[in-house]
Amino acid sequence: DSGVTQTPKHLITATGQRVTLRCSPRSGDLSVYWYQQSLDQGLQFLIHYYNGEERAKGNILERFSAQQFPDLHSELNLSSLELGDSALYFCASSAGTSGGGDEQYFGPGTRLTVT
Amino acid sequence: LAKTTQPISMDSYEGQEVNITCSHNNIATNDYITWYQQFPSQGPRFIIQGYKTKVTNEVASLFIPADRKSSTLSLPRVSLSDTAVYYCLVGYSGGGADGLTFGKGTHLIIQP
Predict the structure, then answer these.
(1) Residue B94 above 60 pLDDT?
(2) What is the pLDDT of residue A23?
(3) CB-side neighbour CA atoms (13 Å) of B76
């Protein structure tokens, strides 16, 4: 158990809909990262927040947005969903201010299926 | 331009030592090298991190030559449960998105 929690575990929705994925970091960690993993794309970095502020952006679509709240939990919002958005979405946390030098702790993931 | 290059797949047998090499020709002075392991449908798990020379922990060793342009993850006496995808990352704390590029990793398959 990494100490990172993600809800829901599974999500099935239709194209065009909007969903919210939630992540609670390990106690004391200020950084939260979001990743998308689909079969053909590998693990793709989406966005990183540190103590409520956006720190780095990766391959995140404009239809996707995220935020980190004062209690440090984070939400990833996916809108106008397409079939290609079906994937595993992972959240990770770390104690530091990001970059490859931090040890990241990953949650169990949310499996999103868009039909 | 990708920061790291790894073999797409490797296979070995139980009880053997496995070495996975990662190339990172453009590594910066501040960058650390970190390896993760991922099982199907699970999040990646930290294995080991190093800056130079050799680092060893209870599960693996990491060898980094003096020029730091590559690194080798060494798994001693592998078992079937070591079948997983292994990722090499290069970056530093406080760095940006470049250091968070996992890529497709190396799919290691261990056979009996």
Answers:
(1) yes
(2) 98
(3) 7
